[in-house]
């Protein structure tokens, strides 16, 4: 830091400082007598001449005059005698020129140039130590008028020359009034300035230096920092703050050198002087004593070293070498064996990143949150911006429950995680799993918890199987060997498809699947009822006793589908006497509630094939309390036609009907049995098949009964049942 200028180069023109009689002879410039103060000559940087009074004529004896030559601030006066001729005398006690500065005589001169007598400046140069030079010219008065000894006096040149103020600094003398620089002095023409040694600051007085270290900044990537005067004792009362600031992403390493010495105390930790180290504002420790701090990787690009000293002590201080390195993040470590760090690097530094994934069947989780992906970036403080996640095994959750079926675990029970296995099965024997051709139920029902966390079947994927009702497989089929005369009470489970309807009076029906009732159209729209009355349809299932069956749920009907061929207004035409009731809810199948199958073969209508007709209809002129059944053979079509002709009936016996019964036997279906089915056991498949619907007859228990031929309507039934409303 440049110091103050102690003087200004003098540039103003020479001027007189008083007025009076001209006394000295000046060859250049103007000089006026100044009786009270004497003369003052202002020196300039170019040389000027002056001479003794009267020069070069001999000077007068007995006179005395004084003259001051003054240089501008920061300059000294240089005086050189060009011609000198004074009367010589012992010690110049006679005539003399005395040069003094600061009140001290520098020289007394007399004699002649080239003469051994006297003390003559030959040629002699005088430079003032300050800015003034005082000159006295004295001649002794004498009685003799010795014109032979006349002397000329002197001619001199004066000028202002630079004063090297710093010379006095180097050559200090007590009587030198020049201000001292405490540390360093720098001279320049016309002045000087002071500066301080590193670590010190020039004070307001511009001369003194004080240790200044409260705000030192280091930005180089490496360097040395030491306490002041190191390894000499550090100054007292320091409040130093050495800050190192390097680029983001770099870490500063500190290495202390020997000697390390800070005033210490045996018991108290660093009570006097201490060195505190902060990295990114975090205290790394306070140090003193003679044990140097360990090498430090600060993991920071901003380090502050605070050094405090008290008023005493003579410890030598400390010195450190700091270096920088790009910051590194700790090697990422997985928290479990299922976590995979992609392309693991041997080292990660600032701005590097890593990606984490999981082994198949595992899911990234952070806390409780599942993550779609994970990336962590190395931050400028050497930490990862995100903590390592975990990999949790994928959980498929509770398997979906299978309507009318169930599942069991093929792996650990209740464990629904990756690779767990379950096996669905349907409630046998009432339900059977729907499978594609050639696929076994166990294959169709096998599900595995996949890596995606979804239960999947190998072929069908997520779709769970369906349990379809098993038709025509009563658990307690009717005994077929018995010979039946007249009607007979059915046992529970003999005809589990049997429905009791209450629409326009009592009727029958049969369960198809687990949601449909097959019945006769005329139970809904009876002949003779001209308008379609808004009547309620009650459907009961699951028992053989009327009272009991009514206690069970009434199955609400969602939809009524009457075959379009049915003609309610044609009293003698029961063609198309078929209808379907779709129940609001599926029923749960069981031993007393099972569907019947539909026919698929004309052979079911072969003459003599025995079938069963069951119903809650009228038996022997009264309403039955229980389900009863009769066993009837399929009759020959021609026989029935003939029988009708004989009776002279106008009734239509269409190809959509068949007849059954035996005029020789007194048994038949009757009113109230309408809608029930003619059930045949198919010996090939061991299934019970509904081949007909109880449709019409002539009286009860007499001759033949007429049935809707179901085989003709199977397509229609299937179509309607598949249709979703
Ligand atoms: C030291 O200097 C740094 C940089 O100027 C500053 O951030 C820090 O606060 C200072 N510490 C103290 C104790 O003054
Ligand atoms: C049948 O009754 C229901 C309410 O029970 C009514 O909303 C509907 O309009 C009636 N339909 C006819 C044709 O009367
Ligand atoms: C009908 O049944 C007979 C005898 O059981 C059989 O030979 C025939 O293939 C069956 N027809 C159909 C279409 O199933
Ligand atoms: C000395 O000489 C000068 C002229 O040279 C003369 O004027 C003066 O009167 C003399 N003085 C004496 C004391 O003789």
UniProtKB/TrEMBL annotation:
Cellular component per GO, a single term: blood microparticle
One GO BP annotation of this record: zymogen activation
Assembly, per entry: Core component of the complement C1 complex, a calcium-dependent complex composed of 1 molecule of the C1Q subcomplex, 2 molecules of C1R and 2 molecules of C1S. The C1Q subcomplex is composed 18 subunits: 3 chains of C1QA, C1QB, and C1QC trimerize to form 6 collagen-like triple helices connected to six globular ligand-recognition modules. Within the C1 complex, C1R is a dimer of identical chains, each of which is activated by cleavage into two chains, heavy and light, connected by disulfide bonds.
Domain Peptidase S1 intervals: 484-722
Signal sequence interval, chain numbering: 1-38
Keyword Cell inner membrane among UniProt keywords: no
Residues that, per the record, bind Ca(2+) 2: 162, 165, 187-188, 191
Coiled-coil stretches: none
SUPFAM superfamilies named in the record: Complement control module/SCR domain, EGF/Laminin, Spermadhesin, CUB domain, Trypsin-like serine proteases
Protein known as: Complement C1r subcomponent
Binding site for Ca(2+) 3: 273, 310, 312
Modified residues (Phosphoserine): 226
Lineage: Eukaryota, Metazoa, Chordata, Craniata, Vertebrata
Xref: Gene3D superfamilies: Complement Module, domain 1, Laminin, Spermadhesin, CUB domain, Trypsin-like serine proteases
Residues annotated for Ca(2+) 1 binding in this entry: 87, 95
């Amino acid at each position: 830091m440049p110091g103050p200028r102690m003087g200004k180069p003098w540039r103003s023109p020479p001027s007189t400082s008083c007025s009076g009689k001209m006394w000295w002879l000046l060859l250049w410039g103007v000089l006026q007598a100044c009786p009270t103060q004497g003369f003052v000559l202002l020196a300039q940087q170019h040389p000027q001449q002056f001479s003794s009074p009267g020069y070069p004529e001999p000077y007068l004896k007995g006179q005395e005059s004084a003259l001051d030559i003054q240089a501008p601030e920061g300059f000294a006066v240089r005086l050189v005698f060009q011609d000198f001729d004074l009367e010589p005398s012992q010690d110049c006690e006679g005539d003399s020129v005395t040069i003094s500065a600061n009140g001290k005589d520098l020289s007394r001169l007399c004699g002649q140039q080239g003469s051994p007598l006297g003390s003559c400046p030959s040629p002699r140069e005088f430079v003032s130590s300050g800015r003034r030079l005082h000159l006295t010219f004295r001649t002794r008065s004498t009685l003799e008028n010795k014109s032979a000894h006349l002397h000329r006096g002197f001619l001199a040149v004066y000028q202002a020359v630079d004063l090297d103020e710093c010379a006095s600094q180097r050559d200090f003398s007590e009587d030198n009034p020049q201000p001292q620089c405490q540390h360093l002095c720098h001279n320049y023409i016309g002045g000087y300035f002071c500066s301080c040694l590193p670590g010190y600051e020039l004070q307001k007085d511009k001369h003194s230096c004080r240790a200044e270290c409260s705000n030192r900044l280091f930005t180089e990537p490496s360097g040395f920092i030491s306490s002041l005067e190191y390894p000499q004792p550090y100054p007292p009362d320091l409040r130093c703050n050495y800050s190192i600031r390097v680029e983001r992403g770099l870490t500063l390493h500190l290495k202390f050198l020997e000697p390390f010495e800070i005033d210490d105390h045996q018991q108290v930790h660093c009570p006097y002087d201490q060195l505190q180290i902060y990295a990114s504002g975090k205290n790394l420790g306070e140090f003193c004593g003679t044990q140097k701090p360990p090498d430090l990787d600060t993991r920071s690009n901003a380090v502050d070293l605070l050094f405090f000293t008290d008023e005493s002590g003579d410890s030598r201080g400390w010195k450190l070498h700091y270096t920088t390195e790009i910051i590194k993040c700790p090697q990422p470590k997985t928290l479990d064996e299922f976590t995979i760090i992609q392309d693991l690097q041997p080292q990660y530094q600032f701005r590097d990143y890593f990606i984490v994934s999981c082994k198949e069947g595992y899911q990234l989780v952070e806390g409780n949150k599942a993550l779609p992906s994970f990336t962590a970036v190395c931050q400028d403080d050497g930490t990862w911006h995100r903590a390592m996640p975990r990999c949790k095994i994928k959980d498929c959750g509770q398997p979906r429950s299978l309507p009318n079926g169930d599942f069991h675990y093929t792996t650990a029970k209740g464990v629904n995680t990756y690779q767990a296995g379950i096996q669905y099965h349907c409630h046998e024997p009432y339900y059977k799993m729907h499978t594609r051709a050639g696929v076994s139920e166990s294959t169709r029902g096998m599900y595995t918890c996949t890596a995606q966390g979804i239960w999947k079947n190998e072929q069908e994927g997520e779709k769970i199987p369906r349990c379809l009702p098993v038709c025509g497989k009563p658990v307690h089929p009717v005994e077929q060997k018995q010979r039946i005369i007249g009607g007979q009470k059915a046992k529970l489970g003999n005809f589990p498809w049997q429905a009791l309807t209450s629409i326009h009076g009592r009727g029958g029906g049969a369960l198809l699947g687990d949601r449909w009732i097959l019945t006769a159209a005329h139970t809904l729209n009876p002949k003779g009822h001209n308008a379609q009355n808004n009547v309620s349809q009650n459907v009961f299932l699951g028992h053989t006793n009327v009272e009991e069956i009514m206690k069970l749920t009434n199955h609400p009907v969602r939809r009524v589908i009457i075959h379009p061929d049915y003609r309610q207004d044609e009293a003698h035409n029961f063609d198309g006497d078929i209808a379907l009731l779709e129940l609001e809810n599926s029923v749960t199948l069981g031993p007393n509630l099972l569907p019947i199958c539909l026919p698929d073969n004309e052979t079911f209508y072969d003459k003599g094939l025995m079938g069963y007709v069951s119903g809650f209809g009228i038996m022997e002129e009264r309403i039955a309390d229980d389900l009863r059944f009769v066993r009837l053979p399929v009759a020959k079509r021609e026989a029935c036609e003939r029988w009708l002709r004989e009776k002279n009936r106008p009734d239509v016996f269409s190809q959509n009907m068949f007849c059954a019964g035996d005029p020789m036997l007194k048994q038949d279906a009757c009113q109230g049995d309408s809608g029930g089915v003619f059930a045949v056991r198919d010996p090939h498949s061991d299934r019970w098949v509904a081949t007909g619907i109880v449709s019409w007859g002539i009286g009860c228990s007499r001759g033949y009964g007429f049935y809707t031929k179901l085989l003709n309507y199977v397509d229609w039934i299937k179509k309607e049942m598949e249709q979703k409303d």
